[in-house]
Write a structure and sequence with these properties.
The protein has about 900 residues and is an alpha/beta fold. Helix content is about 50%, strand content about 5%. It folds into 4 domains: about 1-240, no CATH class; about 255-340 and about 560-690, Rossmann fold (3-Layer(aba) Sandwich), CATH 3.40.50; about 350-545; about 705-895, no CATH class. The strands form 4 sheets. It has a 6-stranded parallel β-sheet, with helices on both faces. Helix 3 (about 55-60) crosses helix 9, helix 5 (about 70-85) packs across helix 7 and helix 18 (about 400-405) packs across helix 21 (about 460-480). It is globular. The N and C termini lie far apart (about 75 Å).
């Protein structure tokens, strides 16, 4: 069969080209879904199941390689076994490679797809890492059949793959009139080895037509297409007689069309550039990618509101993107990484492992130590993920996480789950012995009430201990003896499948959508029987995200909020039938982003140098692949011109000024044509924003408030609400403040012990040490270094602030002293001074002694009902027990 190349000048008038009758009834495989959508919008003849994407064809044609998770895991395990067990690899290289196994595998797969012959590689040109890659590649293709990729397809397989790809794109329906003797590949500039292999296989049995847009008057802009397609080494058929020129008859898009025309003329060195006036066009300047993401997010949220009001039929047929007034196309796709966080539902169905239940499997794998056969705790958040998953049974939802977070500082020095359980049992015994009533008293044991980990009940601790024991049992069920088993991947996933069926799927409270995900995950796990290989535990962890993923659901593919430039050529075709207020926004158009030279990101350690100098075959597929990689920079210029020329609605331009610590400049062509940078709309909106007052529900106080509550009220209304009303007093939660509180207790104990006695340093040192020893059991996370710091600070404070300098006597504790000591327990400091004014105590008026009459007058239901519990930011924020909730302390630190 044959292969032909055709071009067309105007994408709105392909049906006027002489080859139209040849292709109009044939399957067309387009570079993107957006091109499929655009062609469907313009050409009625191409509907009814004649259009699909080239990616769907590749998947159908090479499903055993291209989209085969089981094969990928087997290949990954093979690479992992070689790296971990080959005695010929030095330890330093082994450690280095262990962090790059996925890249190594992707590199080997790329070499397999290209059919690279090892004996033709010039090793002189290779780096040390590339030499290792070539050796590894040579080893696996000779010894492991799972890396062979040279199987030819029969005509029946080609036919089946074509129909499958068309049906997949058209809800199972294709036209009876379709002619599969000729196959069209439309608009492909960035050729992957898999696309090229597919074209080659199809061309053995079918007539293949390669089709793309070409404007002869902009030869330099379009030369990138000629350079890529000339590598096919076949004639190019073009009429070159249907040039498009900007016309005022298209008023909405005229200025954008004219700008595209002038950029094209600029590339040709035309002297007609300055006959057009573009000074009224501003290029929006965003300070950084985050600001740009915020701008896009506002547009998306506006569209989402319209979508929510649509009827069910429209919601079935359309997405939120349909209602966006601005359609975004970016040279740099980094903004989508931020938008995925804002709107995860828009970027395709969530991976099973991103759900709390999925996080459970990741967390226990991260904690499991295959050498000791136990759960080692590197990060307490891993346990939180497990407890939050819903797999560990709890009486009240969220109770286990709440109790764990309250007590985690108490056992923070422990490194495995058995030790944590042991510590919790000890805490349980201590709380049981003290009793809740004693905790609330102002006795020595009552001081424990300010420690968050003592504010839990014996029953709550029992339930947490049971939950952690259950977690430990599940971990041993999955991973015990993992590396000693044959075909251990298969065994592991069989256990996971059984666990999900018996533990999760039977839950009555599962939401319908999530239950559907579980069912599709089980469908994938049914295929675990195919995995014959064994691998290391680290390999299992690294590949878990590939396998613990539900089968894809039709219609749930990602819809990028900001599309890349490769999707412009199809999407702009829809503009001809869209409402007049639609705007096509070409963004991130800076010199730096427009100058990126390579489109396909090479997996380590491959690079363009490897393919250009180390390997020089004559195979046309290889030549096309390399040429398309090198031409990506030129492709972006073409895409911008194409988008401006053929858009039929309004347009916007923008760029990001600061990116990766580099100051970007607006695209040079815009500067030459007289365009000017303009402020982003988000900046203008921010300058107009007014301060919003939050309406609060009336607060009713059903407790007797005391002096320390009034002190909190004076210091910060928000702190008063959290500590006095919600928590019933100060509850220290983090290590820094708990150690400061320990320091205060030691100071107070020393004052009680030495009151009325003469100051002798050896007596003070002994009393400090005795005091620390007497309370250290309550602060089990403290280490020896903490002890040294605490005693040193307490000693300095006592000498400078407590001992009477006139007679060297420790004063007898009176009522004022007791009040002072209690204040320190709740506020850590009774004196705070700013650096610039060390003589002024900013807490003096806040902690001024008061009587109950003052308290009752200031803090009652009548006075509190209309109060805004606002924050008051100052140095005291650093010592607030709720500073990790409020976060205002970071303002003080920053200042």
């Amino acid at each position: 069969m044959s292969m032909q190349i055709y071009t067309y000048s105007n994408p709105y008038e392909i049906d006027r080209e002489p080859f139209w009758n040849l292709i109009k009834n044939c399957p067309q495989f387009c570079v993107s879904q957006t091109m499929v959508n655009g062609l469907s919008e313009i050409y009625l003849e191409l509907r009814h199941g004649k259009l699909s994407t080239v990616d769907r064809l590749v998947t159908s044609l090479y499903d055993e390689w291209y989209d085969n998770t089981e094969l990928y895991i087997e290949q990954y395990a093979t690479i992992d076994n070689i790296i971990s067990k080959d005695k010929g690899i030095s330890e330093d290289i082994r450690r280095s490679l262990s962090f790059n196994k996925k890249d190594l595998l992707d590199s080997i797969r790329l070499l397999c797809e290209l059919g690279i012959e090892v004996n033709k590689i010039d090793r002189v040109e290779l780096s040390r890492q590339q030499l290792f890659l070539v050796g590894l590649y040579n080893r696996v293709i000779k010894s492991y059949g799972i890396f062979k990729f040279d199987k030819e397809r029969k005509n029946t397989q080609i036919e089946a793959a074509i129909k499958s790809a068309l049906m997949d794109a058209n809800k199972g329906s294709i036209s009876d009139e379709i002619n599969t003797n000729t196959i069209v590949f439309h608009g492909i500039h960035q050729f992957t080895p898999m696309i090229l292999k597919s074209i080659e296989e199809v061309s053995k049995y079918k007539n293949v037509v390669l089709l793309f847009n070409y404007q002869q008057q902009y030869k330099n802009i379009y030369q990138t297409w000629i350079d890529v397609y000339s590598a096919f080494d076949i004639p190019l058929h073009s009429q070159f007689n249907n040039e498009f020129k900007a016309t005022a008859l298209l008023p909405l898009s005229y200025q954008g069309n004219l700008l595209g025309e002038k950029i094209g003329q600029l590339s040709e060195g035309s002297d007609k550039l300055f006959q057009a006036e573009f000074s009224n066009i501003s290029v929006l300047e965003f300070d950084n990618v985050t600001e740009f993401a915020g701008y896009v997010a506002e547009e998306y949220e506006s569209a989402a509101k319209i979508f929510d009001e649509a009827n069910d039929d429209e919601k079935q047929r359309r997405s939120v993107l349909f209602y966006m007034k601005e359609q975004f196309y970016s040279v740099n796709n980094e903004v989508n990484d931020i938008l995925k966080i804002y709107f995860p539902e828009q970027f395709g169905e969530r991976h099973f492992l991103s759900y709390p239940i999925g996080q459970f499997f990741i967390a226990i794998a991260d904690m499991w130590n295959e050498e000791t056969g136990e759960l080692l705790i590197k990060n307490m958040n891993s346990i939180v993920e497990c407890l939050n998953s819903g797999i560990i049974v709890e009486e009240r939802k969220g109770e286990l996480v709440s109790v764990f977070n309250k007590t985690s500082i108490y056992f923070s020095r422990e490194e495995n789950i058995e030790a944590i359980i042991s510590k919790l049992k000890a805490l349980q015994i201590r709380i049981k012995r003290i009793g809740r009533k004693s905790l609330r008293n102002d006795s020595n044991e009552g001081e424990l009430s300010r420690l968050n980990y003592y504010n839990v009940s014996v029953e709550e601790l029992s339930r947490l201990i049971t939950g952690l024991e259950e977690l430990n049992e599940v971990a041993h069920l999955f991973y015990e003896d993992f590396e000693q088993e044959e075909a251990n991947f298969k065994t592991f996933y069989s256990r996971v499948k059984e666990f999900i069926q018996n533990k999760i799927l039977i839950e009555d409270k599962l939401e319908k959508d999530f239950k559907d995900i579980i069912v599709r995950l089980l469908s994938r796990l049914e295929k675990s029987e195919r995995i014959k290989t064994s691998g290391t535990f680290s390999c299992l962890k690294e590949t878990m995200s590939f396998y613990l993923k539900q089968e894809s659901k039709k219609g749930n593919s990602a819809n990028w909020i900001v599309r890349d430039f490769e999707q412009i050529d199809g999407d702009v075709l829809k503009s001809i039938n869209q409402p007049d207020d639609i705007i096509y926004h070409f963004c991130c158009v800076s010199d730096a982003d427009m100058s990126t030279s390579v489109g396909l990101k090479m997996p380590w350690p491959l690079d363009l140098h490897f393919f250009e100098l180390a390997y020089l075959p004559y195979d046309w597929k290889y030549q096309v692949f390399i040429k398309s990689l090198k031409e990506y920079k030129s492709f972006k210029k073409y895409a911008l011109v194409y988008g401006l020329l053929f858009n039929r609605r309004k347009f916007k331009l923008s760029y990001v000024k600061n990116e990766n610590e580099i100051c970007n400049e607006m695209y040079y062509a815009f500067k030459i044509l007289g365009l000017r940078p303009g402020n982003s709309p988000s900046n203008e909106k921010n300058s107009q924003k007014q301060k919003v007052k939050v309406n609060q529900s009336p607060l009713k106080v059903d407790m007797r408030l005391e002096s320390n509550d009034y002190y909190r009220w004076r210091i910060c209304k928000y702190r008063f609400a959290l500590e006095s009303i919600i928590e019933g007093g100060t509850k220290y939660k983090e290590k820094f403040l708990i150690l400061k509180y320990m320091e205060v207790l030691i100071e107070n104990y020393v004052r009680e012990e030495l009151q009325g006695k003469r100051y002798l340093e050896q007596d003070l040192d002994k009393t400090l040490d005795d005091s620390y020893e007497s309370i250290k059991e309550k602060f089990q996370f403290a280490i020896e270094l903490d002890k040294i710091d605490i005693i040193a600070r307490a000693k300095r404070y006592i000498i400078e602030n407590i001992v009477n300098p006139n007679n060297n006597i420790f004063p007898v504790i009176d009522d004022n002293s007791l009040t002072h000591m209690r204040k320190k327990c709740d506020f850590i400091n009774v004196k705070l001074s700013r650096e610039e004014d060390k003589d002024t105590n900013i807490l003096r008026d806040k902690l001024r002694t008061c009587n109950q009459k003052e308290i009752d007058a200031a803090l009652n239901n009548n006075t509190l009902i209309n109060v805004d519990f606002t924050t008051s930011v100052d140095l005291w924020c650093q010592y607030c027990a709720n500073r990790e909730i409020c976060l205002e302390c970071f303002k003080v630190i920053a200042d």
